[in-house]
Amino acid sequence: MDRITVRDPTDVATARRRVAGLASQLGYNETEAGRVAIVVTELAQNLLRHGGGGEILAGADATGEAALEVLALDKGPGMADVAACLRDGFSTGGTPGNGLGAVQRMSRELVIHSRPGGGPRGGPWGGPWGGPGGGPGGGPGGGTAVLARLGGKAAPVARTAATLCVPKPGETVCGDSACVMPRPDGTIGVLVADGLGHGPQAAAASAEAVRLFRKHPAAALVDLLGILHAGLRATRGAAIAVAVIDPAARQVTYGGVGNIAGFITDSGGTRRMVSHSGTAGHTAGRMQAFRYPMHHRPVLVMFSDGLATSWSPDGHAGLFELDPTLIAAVLYRDHARGRDDASVVVWKG
């Protein structure tokens, strides 16, 4: 996804221009691109007025339906009443109150997750952002995440998976890649690949991992790890992890090489999944698959080391009931280290 940091009013124009350009690349006409520009402007202005700044992320919907997804993420005070904030004329910032109401009218879908208690001191979780109890080093603080979908099919479709790949600050390409795809036997394959380092060469390595993953949709997991390891020898190499989800058997098979983390959370609790050390394409130890049961309403999450690991899903009450893209975005916002590419995949059963 394209990432635009919003810290001052000039960033609003930057966000509007870049996301409108992305809409044009997706084939949106002038009227549709104008609607996108209004949505991005309202979201970016809200980040400044109410969130103390934040980030706009934008990219094509992973379902391939040509919808544009726009995310606005902040660590501000949050909304005590989301429904009230969606009403035209409602304002807490001394403005006309057209923001979220206008965004809702112009979006095909609008989903909001808000957690009151944020701001510069992290609210009830204590500590400044980035320190204990707030941000990458601890549990989540307050903040708001808004997901607007524009264009694409007229009727919303049920989404079970999302991929979110965000480049390292200052980079224009992301060295991480991710993929979710159906397999011929009715299972679902998931890949996260983190190219060594960052920049174009890292992006080339992770993109090659995705290409090989798609080329071998029926391969057993251990065989697939071997294919990826061999196929990445001509690249910089990558950390990789693969999950094969079997909804009928209520089971996940998982294996990886390198620093990709994963867990399943459901009615049976949270189970962290195991990868072996190494770098696919260079040095890899034993290729091994591990099996994990799935219980009622499972959610699988996999992420690169662009996110910290010292947090628990239990600290995100209610989040895993939401849209997969919004889940991925909130986890990115709360736990990204800020010094590397970051990728998150979410699948919901």
UniProtKB/TrEMBL annotation:
Alphabetical list of SUPFAM superfamilies matching this protein: ATPase domain of HSP90 chaperone/DNA topoisomerase II/histidine kinase, PP2C-like
Lineage top rank: taxon: Bacteria
Domain PPM-type phosphatase: 158-349
Entry protein name: PPM-type phosphatase domain-containing protein
Pfam families found in the cross-reference section: HATPase_c_2 (PF13581), SpoIIE (PF07228)
Species whose genome carries this gene: Rhodopila globiformis
Source taxonomy: Bacteria, Pseudomonadati, Pseudomonadota, Alphaproteobacteria, Acetobacterales
InterPro entries, per the entry: HATPase_C_sf (IPR036890), HATPase_dom (IPR003594), PPM-type-like_dom_sf (IPR036457), PPM-type_phosphatase-like_dom (IPR001932), Ptase_RsbX (IPR039248)
Region called Disordered, residue ranges: 118-141
